[in-house]
Amino acid sequence: MADPASNATDARRVMALVVAAGRGIRAGGGLPKQYRTIGDRMVLERTVTALLQHPRIDGVRVVIHPDDRSLYDAAVAGLDLAAPVAGGATRQESVRAGLEALASTEPRPDIVLIHDAARCFVPAALVDRVLDAVDDGHGAIPALPVSDTLKRVADGRVVTTMPRDDLRRAQTPQGFPFPAILAAHRAAAARTDLTDDAAVAEGAGLPVRCVAGAEENVKLTTAADFARAQGRIAGAPAVDVRTGFGFDVHRFEPGDYVWLCGVQIPHEAGLSGHSDADAGLHALTDALLGCLAAGDIGDHFPPSEARWRDAPSHLFLAHAARLLRDRGGVILHCDLTLICEAPRIGPHRAAMRARIADLLGIALDRVSVKATTTERLGFAGRGEGIAAQAVATVRLPGELP
């Protein structure tokens, strides 16, 4: 894996392939969505410009529908791009056409980033995360956790509830070693059931890593998506930055492990609580609910309800994060402090940060976990329990007071 410190000096040749051959008419407006305007610029122009401006990307090539050449020329006028590539009847055919075009030019890229034209708000940091995870033996995709409960439905009736802990919502750009993804697409040419390039890679046996996606990296699909994007560009509604605070405490009871920040830690005692008693995630859940002025964890998951007995606390945190996303919010940072004499937190801090970042769908550098003692004072100092406090900072759309 590339060293993140090499961001500005990545010696590998990186090309971005933008897939813009679809019809995309669900968004309305009478044009394929990549040629609709947000503010005074077409979506495709915004997408291509974001990639061209990234210091680790050496060039961008676009795959278009043959009928859209005049729209394409208008969208990218003045940008330094190679001639566009004519796409096929499916996204998979279009990507393969773009890869073949890259293969016929010199020098060939070492890495290719395959990106949807309709994701025009791709953050530079997300591109870095993908590139840092790609090497000769691995591809990489950005993805977000699934926060909604998933149901399998037949004939309009729920058949079963699906587990979602290991599910992710895939985004683009998806990055791959160029020779491997070219060979994978060639081998999959006869298939029509592969919905993204990671699936093509998986079918060819190329392992694919998953890195944190970004909520703002939305794929513009519906008229509502465009309305929100217009508001974002126009600067209305105003950005509302909020901070929330959470605190929680649980006493020790007989046991041989504790849950803290989503990580199971061996210990000479357990923690007492109606759920799994994860004081860290409880405090962080309350901090996020505080940002929304949405009560506390007990309002949403009453301890009087048997269904929450022994429940994993990541469900509570995912619920608070979903409420935030439903309001159009973005988590900017969270900072959590665990207060206890034991167990030792240091050996588990990295795993805790990674678990929280994964649950919230944010970058690792936006999660802080610390620990302290009370110098043997109070209930924590006497080893009777563990306390946790958390601060969350979020950005919400809305009118400022």
Structure description:
With 401 residues, this protein is an alpha/beta fold. The protein has two domains: 4-234, Alpha-Beta Complex (Spore Coat Polysaccharide Biosynthesis Protein SpsA, Chain A); 239-397, 60s Ribosomal Protein L30, Chain: A, CATH 3.30.1330.50. Helices cover 29% and strands 27% of the residues. A hairpin with a 2-residue loop joins strand 14 and strand 15. Helix 8 packs parallel to helix 10 (314-326).
Provide a short characterization of the protein structure:
This protein is α/β, with parallel strands linked by helices. 29% of the residues lie in helices and 27% in strands.
Secondary-structure map with pairings?
Layout: E1 14-20, E2 37-38, E3 41-42, H1 43-52, E4 59-64, H2 69-75, E5 85-86, H3 91-103, E6 111-116, H4 124-133, E7 139-145, E8 150-154, E9 157-162, E10 168-170, E11 174-177, H5 178-187, H6 197-203, E12 208-212, H7 223-234, E13 239-253, E14 257-260, E15 263-266, E16 270-271, H8 279-291, H9 297-300, H10 314-326, E17 330-339, H11 349-360, E18 367-372, H12 378-381, E19 385-397
Parallel strand pairs: 1-4, 1-6, 4-5, 7-12, 17-18
Antiparallel strand pairs: 2-3, 6-11, 7-10, 8-9, 13-16, 13-19, 14-15, 17-19
Helix pairs in contact: 3-5, 5-6, 8-10
